[in-house]
Automatic annotation (TrEMBL):
Superkingdom of source: Bacteria
Domain Mycothiol-dependent maleylpyruvate isomerase metal-binding per the UniProt entry, residue ranges: 9-124
Name the record gives this protein: Mycothiol-dependent maleylpyruvate isomerase metal-binding domain-containing protein
Signal peptide: none
Pfam families noted in UniProt: MDMPI_N
Provenance organism: Janibacter melonis
SUPFAM superfamilies found in the cross-reference section: DinB/YfiT-like putative metalloenzymes
Amino acid sequence: MSGTAADRFRTAAERFSALVRCTADWSAPTPVDQWRARDVVEHLTTWLPGMLAGCGVALDPGPSAQDDPTAAWEHVRGQVQGLLDDPGKAGQEVTQEHLGTLPLERLVDTYYTPDVVMHSWDLARSSGQDDTIDPDFVREAHAGMLSMEPMIRGSGQYGEQQPEPEGASEQERFLAFIGRDPRWSPPA
């Protein structure tokens, strides 16, 4: 995914929005243990606003993903895109206790945009939609994460490495690395 932080988020968010709009069963299981489709949206609409609030950047409250996943996602998506599209806000230095001080756009680009991309796969698998992840993202993310594996595993943010299927594609190897079963499908 090329371009600016705003461009990368826009691309990831548009993809996730398309998946959200086409999800019919919000109680469907996902590749993430104990999560339903609605929980994927809940995660993406709560953790970043909470982190930003701790950095002194407040997003306007919106609908709950438990009540309306589509409206909740679009509300957060619009606000994050607005921050990234405003050079003054995007370049604003924020301080987060575990990450230190960095520009807001870097925080979103480094942590939130990749999370949107990875959870797009979860929602796509859960809802039977196209689960293809941008190959450039997969290649770059996997290479970057391999160099930080001990820290990633220790963070609790990713599951244990899963077995790679024989003849695994680059996407399947990446998914196994982040703790997903690349061949997961909803129970019959």
